[in-house]
Design brief:
about 350 residues; mainly alpha; 2 domains; about 85% helix; globular
Length: about 350
């Protein structure tokens, strides 16, 4: 019986896998090399994303997109002048006061560490605690220098990013003006047999992400304003700085509430070391986040993303580690987009 030889087809699965990994590594390296450009693009895209509903409403009333853009930029120009005239000087003064008081905060930490060292009873484990306090006390000067360098470096990075702030309005203008052209071009690249379903998924993702991002900006502004006013009424140092930090921390799900109050408690403790004042600050933040969680968010987020809490935390941690601030900001929108797309894939909407 003759022996039949079967044709042997070389497997190229490993080659495709290696090529994919190399491509991802190349994209990651390019993204790191162009991080400032990508940061500017993401900032412009988010601003355009937030402003586009205003233009859509204007177009629904019969206004042309160019005329709507001109009116929008005129209004934003007025707001920018107000911000630069009244808000920026106060922020600058608050930042200068923080830098001026920073050495005092560090020295106060050293003093507290020395006081705790003298109060530690001679019991098991006290030697280890005293060693730890000695290390804190010995390194306090270098810590002050590092903290000061970080603070000035942070201000320097803000100055460096002024280029992005200047360039972003130009990018936003063209993103908003050519939005429909870009959408039609991308739609033309999709095969006709799957175009309708993919565009439908895109609209669903756009509705979910857009509602979340616009709602989160509104919620963060409310938290920042309420926290600043409450801390100002309680005569807590740097109320604007703490309020802005609280507003930014509200972006983080679940743990943002805990992180937001830390700077306010820190400055309160170093100002008075009064437990009663600390309780007042904690109660103020409790009221603010009660209003945020039970009144503001239900009104703003009419349609929840319904994301699993564990998945949400993992996405925030992973993308925050990879992309920094932008990863934290875009973690929930990306998770929502994946969830919506995966739901349609399970239903078989994407199988052709």
């Amino acid at each position: 019986m003759p022996h039949t030889q079967h044709a042997i087809h070389p497997r190229n699965d490993y080659g495709k896998l290696i090529a994919t990994i190399l491509l991802l590594c190349l994209l990651a390296a390019a993204g790191y090399a162009l991080k400032h450009t990508i940061s500017c693009f993401l900032l412009s895209w988010i601003i355009a994303y937030l402003l586009d509903p205003l233009l859509i409403k204007a177009e629904q009333r019969g206004m042309k997109r160019m005329f709507s853009l001109v009116l929008l930029y005129a209004a934003l120009g007025v707001l920018t002048v107000f911000f630069l005239t009244f808000i920026v000087p106060k922020l600058t003064m608050s930042w200068d006061e923080f830098l001026r008081d920073l050495p005092g905060y560090i020295q106060k930490i050293k003093q507290i560490a020395m006081e705790w060292k003298t109060r530690i009873p001679d019991r098991y484990g006290s030697d280890e605690i005293q060693w730890l306090l000695d290390k804190v006390s010995a390194n306090v000067d270098s810590t002050a220098e590092k903290a000061g360098a970080w603070a000035y470096g942070f201000a320097g990075r803000i100055f460096f990013n002024l280029f992005n702030i200047v360039l972003s309005p130009i990018l936003v203008f063209f993103m908003l003006y050519y939005k429909q052209t870009v959408i039609e071009t991308l739609a033309s690249w999709i095969p006709e047999n799957s175009r309708d379903i993919i565009l439908g998924i895109g609209q669903e993702v756009n509705s979910s992400i857009g509602g979340y991002m616009r709602g989160q900006v509104f919620v963060s502004l409310i938290v920042a304003v309420l926290a600043s006013l409450a801390l100002f009424a309680l005569s807590i140092p740097h109320p604007i700085f703490c309020g802005m930090f609280a507003g930014a921390a509200s972006i983080l799900p679940f743990i943002g509430v805990i992180i937001a109050i830390l700077p306010a408690l820190f400055f309160t403790w170093f100002q008075s070391q009064d437990v009663a004042v600390l309780i007042k600050v904690a109660v103020a933040f409790g009221v603010i986040y009660f209003l945020e969680g039970y009144i503001v968010k239900p009104l703003v987020f009419k349609k929840s993303m319904n994301l699993n809490p564990l998945v949400t935390i993992i996405m925030v941690m992973a993308l925050g580690e990879l992309l920094g601030f932008w990863g934290i900001l875009l973690a929930l929108p990306i998770a929502a987009a994946i969830k919506i797309t995966w739901g349609h894939a399970i239903k078989g909407d994407l199988s052709y």
